[in-house]
Amino acid sequence: AQSVTQPDIHITVSEGASLELRCNYSYGATPYLFWYVQSPGQGLQLLLKYFSGDTLVQGIKGFEAEFKRSQSSFNLRKPSVHWSDAAEYFCAVGTYSGGGADGLTFGKGTHLIIQP
Amino acid sequence: EAGVTQFPSHSVIEKGQTVTLRCDPISGHDNLYWYRRVMGKEIKFLLHFVKESKQDESGMPNNRFLAERTGGTYSTLKVQPAELEDSGVYFCASSQDLGPTRARQYFGPGTRLTVT
Q1: How sure is the predictor about A43, in pLDDT bands with cuts at 50, 70 and 90?
Q2: Which of A4, A10, A18, A71 measures 20 to 30 Å from B76, CA to CA?
Q3: Exposed, middle or buried: residue B57 (CB in 10 Å: 0-12, 13-18, 19+)?
Q4: CA distance B5 to B65
Q5: Is B42 in contact with A4 (Cβ distance < 8 A)?
Q6: Which of B22, B9, B38, B17 is nearest to B83 (CA)?
Q7: Residues 3-32 of B with CB under 8 A from A
Q8: What pLDDT, in 10s, does the model give residues B72-90?
Q9: B33: nearest CA partner in chain A
Q10: In whole angstroms, what is the distance from residue A76 CA to residue A65 CA?
Q11: Does the distance separating the beta carbons of A106 and B105 come in below 8 Å?
């Protein structure tokens, strides 16, 4: 069975500082990896995903993530955070069957707090 | 294009009552997913429809939960009778089957269910 670990429940970063959110996964093969963000009152929005190929993935809002097979990690990064990045971030792993994408397995989420 | 919509946004019911949650996927999306997040826990997959058929219902917690998708359009998730531990946020997501490299799920804003 697959699993996802986000070791940091809360992270506080100053506005303008760099950010790295950690994600480790457990899966027998190369999975599909996703980062979603949820702002208050909103649904989950996809930031980026990895399926194969280049291990550094660019996403929306200036985010990127790097897939490291040897470490089973898919950490999310941003060089300079903005106050509007305050939200909850979820790492997820998925698989694909013939009929479409399967249900995702999520980590517990990381709350990002931005200090002025 | 309208996103995934869920109704109601919030429901408060007493233990033993019945509640029905509704999800309207993005038009043309054959895949529909239900997830649940209990407070303090990760978002957990409940089940996956492909059109009107249940592709995977391995995440359904017990037989008090009944999901339907008649006609392959909107879906309902009924909880009967509701228990205290059913409280949480229920998310719906939908996707098209565009192959594994383009697979992504679009999430609705969720329904917050409180059982008292």
Answers
A1: confident
A2: A4
A3: middle
A4: 20
A5: yes
A6: B17
A7: 3-4, 30-31
A8: 899 999 999 999 999 999 9
A9: A103
A10: 4
A11: no
